[in-house]
Known about the structure:
Pfam families: DUF3046 (PF11248). By secondary structure, the chain is mainly α. It has helices at residues 3-14, 16-25, 36-41, 46-56; strands at residues 27-28, 34-35.
Amino acid sequence: MRYSEFWDAVTDVFGTSMGRVVVAEQVIGALGDRTAAEAMAAGEDLRRVWWALCDQMQVPAERRWGPDRPSR
C-alpha cells in the first residue's frame, strides 16, 4: 500500500477531517498502543496500519477497500 492509497482509504471511510483526527489520535492496541500516525512515523507497513485502524474502529470488511476507482 502506498502512502497516497492509505490516505485515500482513510478519506473514503472516515472523511477528510475526521480521518485526520482518527489517524492522529486513536490509540490502537494492535500497533503497540500507538496511533496510526505514530506507527507510520516508526516505519510500520501501511497495510498493517490500515487493517489495525479498521479493526479498532470496527469498519465493516466491505468498506475497507473504498469505492472502485480507475487505476493510477
